[in-house]
Specification:
Blueprint lengths: L20 E4 L18 E4 L13 E6 L7 E5 L10 E8 L11 E5 L3 E4 L9 E9 L4 E2 L6 E3 L5 E8 L13 E6 L5 E3 L9 E5 L5 E6 L3 E2 L5 E9 L9 E7 L6 E2 L5 E3 L4 E2 L12 E2 L9 E6 L7 E10 L7 E15 L8 E7 L13 E6 L4 E5 L5 E8 L2 E8 L8 E5 L13
Antiparallel strand pairs: 1-2, 3-4, 4-7, 5-6, 5-8, 8-9, 8-10, 11-25, 12-15, 13-14, 14-25, 15-24, 16-24, 17-23, 17-25, 18-19, 18-24, 20-23, 21-22, 26-29, 27-28, 27-30, 30-31
The structure holds calcium ion.
Amino acid sequence: MLASNIAATSYVDNTVSGGSTYSYKITGKDGTGGCESTQSTCSEATATGLCTLAPTFAGLTTATNAAGASCQANLSWSAASPGCSGPISYNVYRSTVSGFVPGPANLIGTTNSTTYNDTNSLINGTTYYYVVRAKDTGNNVIETNTVQKSVVPSGPVTLSTLTETFEGAGGFDNAGWTNQALSGATIWTWDATQSQTPTHSWKSTSLTTVSDRVLVSPPFGVNAGTTLSFWHTFAFESATTCFDGGTLEYTTDGVTWTVMPDANFTAGLFNGTVSSSFSNPIAGKRAWCNGTIGAMTQVQINLASLAGNTVRVRWHAGDDSSVAVTGWFVDSVTIANAGVAGACTPTASGVDVTGRVFSSAEGRGVRNAVVTITDENGNAHSTVTGALGTYRFAEVETGHTYIVSVRSRRFTFAPQVVQITDNISGLDFTPEP
Ligand SMILES: [Ca+2]
């Protein structure tokens, strides 16, 4: 319904977009408002005025780590369709916070292409989240998709074996391991009562309240020869039914986690499925259940089905609403034939803007002209042209719209407005006639 309770016998709909055809039906009500007529016949009208429709756009399709010497993320998407005249340009937004709201503060670039290579101040190992939105440059309307993809920039990848004994200071030999509660407050603990190599493991202590917690590996590249193994011992409620338990999951996008398929195990497969009876957060998942604490046993998994992906795995323990026994000890993780990334070098925080100031279209360079670059907040920097009329601003922050203006005693130049997303050369000025 567009509008209601209109006393007049006419109505102006100013929510329409020029060029689009709309269909209308009306109903009438009696004085009490309690009785409503059937709908009128349908009447169509094509709106005049500005076309105000947003482009139709599915959002970002891929975001990948370039894995080169300097940090870079490569984004791509399928072309948007303009709702009005077009042409389309794309805004690229970036944040280190998942679920961020795209806006001017996190706009890092614009492009007319369906790809964007981000080299702007990326830091090795940091997770960046991207959203791309389409803009109709004919009416400046930006659509509002929320499709988000993440990238963790790294350097070149080499084949290696990741060995984690959980003996290093703080519980980890390698960087990138994390541990958190997903529900309840209790996390995994570094433990010296059970171990395989030689004195420590990580323990999930089972609780008598609904809760779950994860121990998460660093990301690693998977190929056809990549395998995962670890050692563990566990004792979960109960001896016969899988009320509490622990599962193993993987993610290829850092967002969605999937239980490791039974078919991937070559030793030590899950021995049950978690009960759905008492609110266990991992209810219904294949898991390790029951058990008694004793000598650790090895689990072996073939990861070939995940080849081509960058993967994290996590040990995910879940407890139902009552009764707990000891819990789960995990040790000695080996990921063989993993793709291990070196560090990339952070890219520069700013770009170069260069050009020349000319005395006429075919003329000479104008020396000693004052060139000023001003951002949308009024922050300005000035420089003076050299003998050939050349100027250069270094370390200009990207993602902003700047006004570049020129002052000269002999000539008048129109200012230029530029959206700066990358190095700009050839931003030249010739005098107004
Ligand atoms: Ca150990």
